[in-house]
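Narrative of accomplishments. A recurring question from our advisory board has been how the design workflow behaves on a single, concrete structure rather than in aggregate. To address it, we present the structure tokens for one chain from the evaluation set, followed by the sequence designed for it. No filtering or post-editing was applied between the two.
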């Protein structure tokens, strides 16, 4: 056994199987089993050198992990690295119990992980079939109510840009009016709440109008409401003052009665 020193060249070419010392470890001179190239490789009693060089080991690893391109047959089992999946699992080619489409399913405890494909499973997590379903309505900061529309609805295009789940958001008062009219609403058509309550979407409280008429109606409502509020406020103020005068009169009478009783007791 000869020591390998840094910065020095050993005299003579090493022989196959020759072991030398390098710092605190040992190396052995071996030939690659694939290309035949000789090189130094780490040596331990449990692992006396690697059989392949780094280049041939990478080629063998790529060949081992090469994805099989042929069409699998039903119930065929493959390793994850053969189909480009998780390398620590095995997968089986099975049909979905709902739509019948074949797909790879991970094997857990000898059985497929799921009997349904992702699309069929996702259908149970959307809409009223989801366990997170809360009626499909959301109250906005402006006081309106938003509802969700799905592709199977005839008024699906009435909503905004669809989300990842496929649902589109629509204002409930526009949807109620569209269902009542039996057609889609134009962009210039405005649905007006008669009583001014934005989440009261009963058809009796809704009125179809244009943007111009809607602005005029709101301005008229603001003006009438201001006058009515001013009048009601004045009446309420007068009423409260009268009640305060009556209350003060009663308290004054009680004080006089107490003064009479105290004066009679002294005499």
């Amino acid at each position: 056994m000869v020591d390998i020193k840094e910065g020095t060249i050993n005299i003579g070419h090493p022989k196959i199987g020759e072991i030398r010392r390098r710092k605190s470890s040992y190396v052995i001179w071996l030939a690659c089993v694939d290309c035949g190239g000789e090189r130094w490789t780490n040596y331990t009693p449990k692992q006396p050198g690697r059989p392949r060089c780094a280049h041939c080991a990478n080629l063998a690893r790529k060949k081992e992990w090469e994805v099989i391109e042929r069409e699998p047959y039903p119930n065929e089992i493959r390793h994850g690295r053969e189909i480009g999946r998780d390398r620590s699992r095995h997968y089986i080619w099975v049909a979905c119990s709902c739509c019948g489409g074949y797909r790879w399913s991970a094997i857990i405890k000898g059985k497929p992980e799921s009997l349904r494909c992702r699309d069929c499973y996702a259908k149970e997590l959307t809409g009223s079939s989801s366990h997170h379903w809360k009626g499909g309505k959301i109250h906005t900061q402006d006081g309106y109510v938003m509802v969700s529309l799905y592709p199977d609805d005839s008024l699906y295009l009435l909503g905004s840009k669809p989300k990842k789940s496929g649902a589109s958001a629509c204002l409930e008062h526009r949807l109620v009016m569209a269902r009542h009219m039996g057609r889609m609403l134009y962009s210039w058509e405005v649905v007006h709440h008669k009583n001014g309550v934005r989440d009261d979407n009963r058809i009796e409280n809704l009125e179809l109008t244009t943007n111009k008429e809607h602005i005029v109606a709101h301005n008229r409502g603001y003006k009438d409401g201001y006058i009515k509020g001013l009048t009601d406020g004045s009446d309420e103020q007068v009423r409260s003052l009268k009640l305060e005068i009556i209350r003060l009169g009663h308290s004054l009478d009680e004080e006089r009665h107490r003064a009479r009783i105290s004066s009679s007791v002294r005499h």
